[in-house]
Amino acid sequence: MVKAFENECKVLLNSEDYSKIYKFFDLEKSKPIQQVNYYFDTLTSNLVNNKYNLRVRHIIGEDTYTLTVKIPQENGSNLEINEEITFEEFNDFINYHKVPNGYINDKLKSFNKEEIVLLTSLCTTRYEFEYNLGALALDYNEYNDKYDYELEFEGKSMEHAIRVVNELFNLLNIEYTFSTISKRKRAIDSIK
After folding, report:
1. Count of C-beta atoms within a 10 Å radius of residue 174
2. pLDDT tens across 58-80, in order?
3. Residue 145, Cβ neighbours under 10 Å: how many?
4. Helix H segments across 68-112?
5. 154 and 161 in contact (C-beta within 8 Å)?
6. Does the pLDDT value for residue 188 go beyond 80?
7. Which residues of 103-134 are buried (b: 16+ CB within 10 A; e: fewer)?
8. Distances in whole angstroms, Cα of residue 36 to Cα of each of 11, 75, 140
């Protein structure tokens, strides 16, 4: 299990701004990461109502599965808890609603007695690299017959993350609008 505070600035992009960033960083020479996020909750949204966002991320090609819970913090960051799980545990979770044993399951059991089910998934083609003392990700997302583009920058603090994104966008003449709608929420809202 890994616990960390995530100081991440996210910005939704249009296709033109995505292309500007893609060209600026010369990403045609890079191999993207293909990943699928699977989002879970109870049918009454008990987890999200208690400020727990639960997902499994599958990295295609590496065949890794990571169970993650994100818990928003007062300062705008998230407490992120990750546990590696096996394909068998992932399969049992998807098909039989059996949350893998571990710290995350114990945390969820402390307040939730309802069945946890798969709500939806989102596929991402991600270019990720170190940039300005942090990690920058340029994403193309597909979910429920929709798609969007997003830039994420994880910095040492929220202030650092916002500053770096502002500087990059000023350099590339891109209008900056902080995104408060997560991939999870966009994917789930698209099925309602």
Report:
1. 20
2. 999 998 999 999 887 777 777 88
3. 7
4. 87-96, 103-109
5. yes
6. yes
7. ebbeebeeebeeebeebbbbbbebbbeeeeeb
8. 20, 28, 12
Q: Which residue has the tokens 């609008």?
A: 177
Q: In this structure, what is the dihedral angle of CA atoms 138, 63, 109, 53, given to the nearest 10 degrees?
A: 10
CA distance between the termini of the chain: 33
Q: Give the CA dihedral 190, 158, 139, 3, nearest 10 degrees.
A: -80
What's the rounded Cα separation, in Å, for the pair 164 and 170?
Answer: 10
Q: What is the pLDDT of residues 131-148, one digit of tens each?
A: 999 999 999 999 999 999
> Mean pLDDT, to the nearest integer, of 160-166?
95
Closest residue by Cα to residue 137 from 48, 44, 6, 49? 6
Structure tokens at 50: 């208690």
CB-based contacts of 18, cutoff 8 Å, min separation 6 = 138, 140, 149
Q: From the CB of residue 173, how many other CB atoms can be counted at a distance below 10 Å? A: 8
Q: How many residues does the chain have?
A: 192
Q: Cα dihedral sign for 178, 180, 185, 190?
A: negative
Whether 94 has a pLDDT exceeding 80, the answer reads: yes
Please say whether the beta carbons of 9 and 160 come within 8 A: no
- Report which of 66, 64, 68, 58 is spatially closest to residue 108, judged by C-alpha positions: 68
CA 73 – CA 89 distance, rounded (Å): 29
Q: Which two tokens stand for residue 111?
A: 């307040």
Handedness of CA 86, 90, 95, 98 (dihedral sign): positive
